[in-house]
Amino acid sequence: QVQLVESGGGLVQPGGSLRLSCAASGFTLDYYAIGWFRQVPGKEREFVAHSGGTTYYADSAKGRFTISRDNAKSTVYLQMNSLKPEDTAVYYCAASTRFSRDYSDYIYWGQGTQVTVSS
Hints:
This protein has 119 residues and is mainly beta. The chain is 0% helix and 50% strand. It has no helices and eleven strands. It has strands at 3-7, 10-12, 18-25, 33-39, 46-51, 55-57, 65-70, 75-80, 89-96, 108-109, 113-117. The strands form two sheets. Strands 2, 4, 5, 6, 9, 10 and 11 form a seven-stranded mixed β-sheet that branches. The chain is globular, with a radius of gyration of 13 Å. The termini are far apart.
């Protein structure tokens, strides 16, 4: 059974950091690219970062977020620094066979983890 499970979300003050994890099971992570997306109520799911042959970031994430992966542990991470209130969202990881910023190109999805940036 294919599963992606996110963890590491929570409440953090502006300027703080969080590290999200995405644990994959039921498929070989090496063969897939992983993307992180986020969504707030009433808005479309937004691309954040992607890890495949190379890494890509949304402009809002560049310089603050870092995506990394440990294929041996079947886990992808999103290190988020200098967090801002506008980063508040549910964060999802997803698997795709290629790079894309379009969430409809992703095959497998996790259930999401809430990140709240507030003082």
